[in-house]
Input
Amino acid sequence: MKAHFKIKRFNPEKDREPHWEEYELEVEPTERVLDALQTIKWEQDGTLTLRRSCAHGICGSDAMVINGKNRLACKTLIKDLGSHITVEPLRGLPVIKDLIIDFTDFFAKYRSIKPYFINDEPPPDVERRQSPRQRARFDDTTKCILCGICTTACPVFWADSRYLGPAAIVQAHRFLFDSRDQGAEERLPVLSAHGGVWKCRTVFNCTDACPQGIDVTGAIAEVKKLLLFRKL
Amino acid sequence: MEIHHHQYEAVIVGAGGAGLSAAVYAARGGANVAVISKLYPPRSHTGAAQGGINAALGNLEEDHWEWHMFDTVKGSDYLGDQEAIELMVRKAPEIVYQLEHLGLPFDRTPEGKIMQRPFGGHTRNYGEAPVKRSCHAADRTGHMILQTLYQNCIKEGITFFDEFHVLDLLLEDGVCRGAVAYEIATGDLHVFHSKAVLFATGGCGRIFSFTSNAHALTGDGLASVYRRGVPLEDMEFFQFHPTGLYPLGILITEAVRGEGGVLRNDQGERFMERYAPTIKDLAPRDLVSRAIYLEVREGRGIGGKDYVHLDATQLGQAIIKAKLPEIADFCRTYVGVDPVKQPIPVKPTVHYAMGGIPTDIDAQVIVDDQGTPVAGLYAAGECACVSVHGANRLGCNSLLDIVVFGQRGGVRLAEYVKGADFAPLPPEPEAWSVSQIERFLKGPGDHQEKIGALRAEMQELMMRDVGVFRTEEPLRQALAGLKALKARYQEAEIDDRGHRFNTDLLEAIELGNLLELAEVAAAGALNRQESRGAHYREDFPQRDDANWLKHTLACKVAGQIEFSYKPVSITKFQPKERKY
Output
């Protein structure tokens, strides 16, 4: 089938402002949007710039806005969109070039919640024990691939760049609800501070957009609850 | 283009499981270390590993490191170095416990221990029946390992240069002096002056067209050291994973068969019963891939096409949801198949390079059969060849390999830099890198050859002539074809002449690396006149221990590939006929 792509382009070495460029190409309906973007790059315009690596939704490189929604280009099939496809960079973070956004702020916020296992007790000679039930408690948030889709889908984040954003809170949740972790006291001040969980207005954009199917809004609510009951 | 200078005691290139393991232990050993990666670390391809990491923990049934060692040696078709394999499998339980202590969320048994399941080629009591040895976190074990190691690098305060693409190794008089990298966001060059460099840049599966490998797997580390005169070992051995999702090539984990899935041909026959009567669908990958090709060749592919079915319907909704959620998602997303109800279409997909940069058991690079090291140069993970996988890797042994030898490399690196001085940089250390970039940025612009088209030709050629079945004449044609492609590459041009995030330029540079490595793989395949593990010559269908029980070393000398050899370490298990 013939597909018509409209792509938001911006090269600060040349352009003062972003502009749209259009491309037509033959595609298979079962192809990924990523395949079509690469075909455009390889056959029509080598200057089109995007990130990609694994091409099957696990590395989190090719997050972008496709037909108005945040998605991974490698997990979105042409047949689910139709023949007219618009592609833009994620919103709420600075654009470096074309579909490439600057993740510096995103990873700084990720780091601020201490995204690592904290337990200073000497470990046993074998594994620490954890029941299947305890393990299941935080399974959902271990799936996060740090693609940035949830954070850049959040209207609160668009309006207030001090907000940690859903992805950083999901990462905090992964440790806060791990029975083996003892880092809650170190993480909770960041999560309850001005840019923390209380900024969340439960819009559910994050949950709707997550390519891993994580219940992001639910995870944020659980962190809120944890903070509340700690204070009481 | 600006040139920036840095000095670190050690530079680690690549931030997958091997690079990050090395970084954690080099930092703990007191080394001042920087990690360079062309991707953000959590984008690395370790994250795509699904099935698990092997260790004879015996959490669910009896298991012993000796059994794990035997399986790995036999799986390697006796080309694996037994000293290194013994070290890896003996270390495996400790490594898995360490990962758990670092926070890795393994699945659990009812008693709260680490959960284990069977995997291809892993058996109890030296080949009797499959054994539960693979420790896992659903079918996203690699993702969890990558995340856990990255998290611990953050905890250790390690310095990262994210989205820096390595271009060159600085090596003179057998002493490593650092590396040169290209900052993708700005187009600037960075010269890293260091006492030691550890390469952990992963594989080069993108020399082929049908692969489970990420676009990023272009062998940048392999090509960088090879150009500087370091040999590459056993590059003729490339693993085809039997179950790539048809028609995309995305990996469908062996855990599907570990949990009870079976392969079926067009007649619905469970054909692996004929090829491997004892362990059937859990035979090693080289055997299963060849079996699928033979079924297809004899007209028993599905609907006469070039794929077969992986049938997991007998597992039921609950097992698939709990144990194989990612692959169920892939099947539904990409081919509209629900594995609970329908068989999955699969075809062998290029998966793993058994060969690589030759190292000893401490990840130190060695250049010959005498164990001569390159001072300060290390390699670990898929880009290295220790060799623990020999001619064919067993499933779940690569996650083990990257953590064991990444860690040993990190520890050794930290010891080395304590006792070593900074060797002086060569004059104009960035010169070669500048020439590579400028050739593309300042070309005449007549666009005779396009990078994308050349790459596609190379990948098709490799798939056709250097695939699962190999014979002399097609291999000679492949080498001639690659030579022609290399000449055309010299004329190739790019569209993007800018400095900011120029991925057009990077793809051109990556293709240069791929072409080098494709040539080494094809030449190695022509050179090795026997069949062993993943390397199958139809004109030499037998394994030939008398002449070929040895590792290949391919070295670039005056633009030509020269082969030399080194012996295999054989300690506990003498080569025997390999039957499953």
Summary: Chain A has nine helices and seven strands. Strands of chain A lie at 2-9, 19-26, 63-66, 69-72, 84-88, 95-97, 100-101. The mean pLDDT of chain A is 97.
